[in-house]
From TrEMBL:
<keyword id="KW-0560">Oxidoreductase</keyword>
<dbReference type="Pfam" id="PF00171">
    <property type="entry name" value="Aldedh"/>
</dbReference>
<dbReference type="InterPro" id="IPR016160">
    <property type="entry name" value="Ald_DH_CS_CYS"/>
</dbReference>
<feature type="domain" description="Aldehyde dehydrogenase">
    <location>
        <begin position="17"/>
        <end position="476"/>
    </location>
</feature>
<dbReference type="InterPro" id="IPR016162">
    <property type="entry name" value="Ald_DH_N"/>
</dbReference>
<dbReference type="InterPro" id="IPR015590">
    <property type="entry name" value="Aldehyde_DH_dom"/>
</dbReference>
<dbReference type="InterPro" id="IPR016161">
    <property type="entry name" value="Ald_DH/histidinol_DH"/>
</dbReference>
<comment type="similarity">
    <text>Belongs to the aldehyde dehydrogenase family.</text>
</comment>
<dbReference type="InterPro" id="IPR016163">
    <property type="entry name" value="Ald_DH_C"/>
</dbReference>
<protein>
    <recommendedName>
        <fullName>aldehyde dehydrogenase (NAD(+))</fullName>
        <ecNumber>1.2.1.3</ecNumber>
    </recommendedName>
</protein>
């Protein structure tokens, strides 16, 4: 094991923190590295450095910021293999999934470089008024120092979705990665630190939620917190932020549906059900963990789904033919196993999976799991499980399918499968979610928004909406 990694980057300097944390490889349960963590005093210093850097950085040109964002994208590209390796080792996801993550990070920084390039020309826009006595312009300005708090399921990706637009907007940043998965985030931070950003524009404080995240949410010098994580913590962040009337963007949980209409392609339906349930070992806010199948297809669909789920190769993230890796840590493994056990107790029928693969005695592995006959009032049907667990239910009408999908406190995403595109579009319009895929896997583009309805989100990330989350609007009205 190598030396303890510095977990603080404040005002352009890498530093050690106070407590030391073991970083675990979830596939082997071995300690991968140690990182030292910050506390409230480190947060205070980081916010101080960001506040001092803000006046100059906020006046920099979009073109200059674009050049730096492009350099970050290039730096990530150059380190692609290394970052993939760190991501898989620390998170447990297969190497090919880590490659998708790194490519997403590159695409996000490139996209916001393009957005920043165009900002100089569009920063001030005239506003049409119903009089010639006055003229008006609207101006977008960076909202200030922002705090970014991210989870462990897509390290680097969630960071990029916040950091790239924040820097493009001209904000200064304090970033807190998840203490569970700091390794790839630290390497990403090293790349960011190498591109020539002025000291204090980008600061990193590794640490636990209570020692670092909570003081960030409370600090009156932070104008906005952008948080991705669980609903329970999102509520706490919002409550703390309320004391200083801070802006919050929240990306929280989901309980999303995949709807297989009567004329769907069954092979595609099975592949997309497995993708929506088992990618990243199901640890996705966007997991389509409710699968709703037209009654007439249900028996054949279940037969094929069971066969495919049982054939999925669960293995070490670096194994050549791996399809699904490990869950992120012991706590998450136990949490998912608890959900499975309570589901069985609640009367749901376990079709396949439900435990660890026999050939993997170590590591936090769970076989792809499928339940049927899941009671509508059970936790299994209603709560986010965040593991490789699908619940399948049949429906007899389009209206019933839509009602089942919408009957949730969440509203993040949905997938619709049908060869009748008119029906698929009609269903997409009726779903109370932020993103619908039709006959498509869960592709995400930096140009399209990420976020949902109800308790899944406040605000949207990506696209122009992701930038606006870090901007204030100012109108200037002048007598002519
Ligand atoms: P979590 O809420 O436990 O932690 C998220 C982050 O918040 C971590 O960095 C953690 O250290 C920090 N934190 C913990 N307590 C805090 C506090 N009191 N104040 C401030 N910060 C605190 O979530 P997790 O277990 O890391 O991630 C899983 C959750 O994230 C799931 O619920 C999932 O749905 C959600 N998620 C949502 C999206 C989305 O885009 N909607 C994406 C990924 C994950």
């Amino acid at each position: 094991m190598s030396a303890v990694l510095n977990g603080l980057y404040i005002n352009g300097v890498w530093r050690a923190g106070h407590d030391v944390l073991d970083v675990i490889n979830p596939a082997t349960e071995a300690t991968l590295a140690q990182v030292n963590l910050g506390d409230a005093s480190a947060v205070s210093e980081a916010v101080g450095a960001a506040s001092a850097a803000f006046p100059d950085w906020s006046k920099s040109t979009g073109r200059d910021r674009a050049a730096l964002l492009r350099k970050i994208a290039e730096g990530v590209s150059a380190q692609r293999e290394h970052l993939m390796h760190l991501q898989s080792s620390n998170n447990g996801k297969p190497l090919f999934e880590a490659g998708i993550d790194v490519d997403d990070v590159i695409a996000t920084f490139e996209y916001y470089a393009g957005v920043a390039d165009e900002m100089d020309a569009s920063r001030d826009r005239p506003v049409a008024l119903p009089t010639e006595d006055f003229s008006a312009r609207v101006r977008r300005e960076p909202c200030g120092v922002v705090g970014l708090i991210v989870p462990w399921n897509f390290p680097m990706v969630t960071t990029a979705w916040k950091l790239a637009p924040a820097l493009a907007a001209g904000c200064c940043v304090v970033l807190k990665p998840s203490e569970v998965t700091p390794l790839a985030e630290l390497e990403l931070a090293r790349i960011i630190a190498s591109v020539g950003l002025p000291a204090g524009v980008f600061n990193l404080v590794c640490g636990t939620g209570l020692a670092v995240g909570a003081p960030m949410a409370a600090d009156p010098r932070i104008a906005k917190i952008s948080f991705t994580g669980s609903n329970a913590v999102g509520v706490q962040v919002m409550q703390r932020a309320a004391e200083t009337v801070k802006g919050v963007s929240l990306e929280l949980g989901g309980k999303s549906s995949l709807l297989v209409l009567a004329d769907a392609d069954l092979d595609l339906a099975v592949e997309l059900a497995c993708g929506g349930g088992f990618f990243n070992a199901g640890q996705m806010c966007s997991a389509t963990s409710r699968v709703l199948v037209a009654d007439e297809l249900a028996d054949e669909f279940l037969t094929r789904l069971q066969a495919r789920a049982e054939s999925i190769r669960v293995a070490d993230p670096f194994a050549e033919d791996v399809e699904m890796g490990a869950l992120v840590n012991r706590a998450q493994y136990q949490r998912v196993q608890g959900h499975i056990e309570r589901g069985v107790q609640a009367g749901a029928k376990l079709l396949c999976g439900g435990g660890r693969p026999v050939d993997l005695p170590h590591g936090y592995f769970i076989r792809p799991t499928v339940f049927t006959e899941v009671p509508l009032d059970s936790a299994l049907w209603n709560e986010e499980i965040f593991g490789p667990v699908l619940c399948v239910r049949s429906f007899t009408s389009e209206a019933e399918a839509v009602a089942l999908a919408n009957d949730s406190e969440f509203g993040l995403v949905a997938s619709v499968l049908s060869s009748n595109l008119e029906a698929a579009e009609r269903v997409a319009n009726a779903l109370q979610v932020g993103l619908v895929w039709i006959n498509a896997p869960q592709v995400i583009f930096p140009q399209t928004a990420w976020g949902g309805y109800k308790q899944s989100s406040i605000g949207r990330e990506l696209g122009p909406w992701g930038l606006q989350a870090f901007q204030e609007i100012k109108h200037v009205i002048r007598a002519v």
